[in-house]
Design goal:
With 181 residues, this protein is of the alpha+beta class. Helix content is 19%, strand content 39%.
Length: 181
């Protein structure tokens, strides 16, 4: 049962990483992408707590919660153009008193159930581009990540461009809801 759950988490993590890694090249723009004014772009400065993380299949409209109903994460934008994001599944347990003493498979599940990156950012008319300088996935380093933004009260809705995965030909849109701290 643990192996099945580990593989499911691994698949979801890979899907999440592929979705976020997609950027804008060769993918259709997310339907929920909104124009962001210069004033709104400045209002992203601060720290945001993750409320939800879902993807929606663009063919079936099925929506799936990634990493469960209560993922944990923080997103920070500084006034000088720097950003960082850390996201994790809420229920990450380990079998030993010290995680470094667990099996290689269990340690791999830790990697598949969290994601972090940081770098510079550039506001655009539809959101922001994250210029990744460091990430727990080395394939992200040096890449740009396009994000569409819109605001709902004290919440920041961040949407990645629609993308397809190797395992599913239907395009999916990742949406992260953040609340200002």
């Amino acid at each position: 049962m643990k192996l099945l759950a580990s593989r499911r988490i691994g698949f979801i993590a890979i899907l999440f990483a592929v979705t976020l890694l997609s950027g804008a090249e060769g993918f259709q723009e997310a339907a929920v992408g909104a124009i962001v004014s210069t004033e709104e772009a400045g209002s992203i400065v601060g720290t945001w707590k993750l409320i939800s993380m879902t993807y929606q299949d663009q063919t079936t409209n099925k929506q799936v919660e990634l990493w469960g109903a209560n993922p944990i994460g923080f997103l920070t934008y500084t006034p000088d153009g720097r950003m960082s994001a850390v996201i994790s599944a809420s229920k990450r347990s380990f079998s030993a008193s010290n995680p470094s003493q667990t099996s290689t498979e269990e340690q791999a599940s830790y990697f598949r159930s969290c994601f972090a990156y940081a770098g510079a950012y550039t506001p655009t008319d539809k959101g922001v581009i994250h210029h990744v300088e460091v990430a727990n996935d080395p394939a992200w380093v040096g890449k740009d990540q396009v994000r569409y933004l819109h605001f709902e009260g004290n919440r920041l809705i961040v949407t990645a461009p629609a993308t397809k995965t190797v395992s599913d030909p239907n395009a999916r849109v990742l949406t992260l809801v953040w609340e200002r701290l």
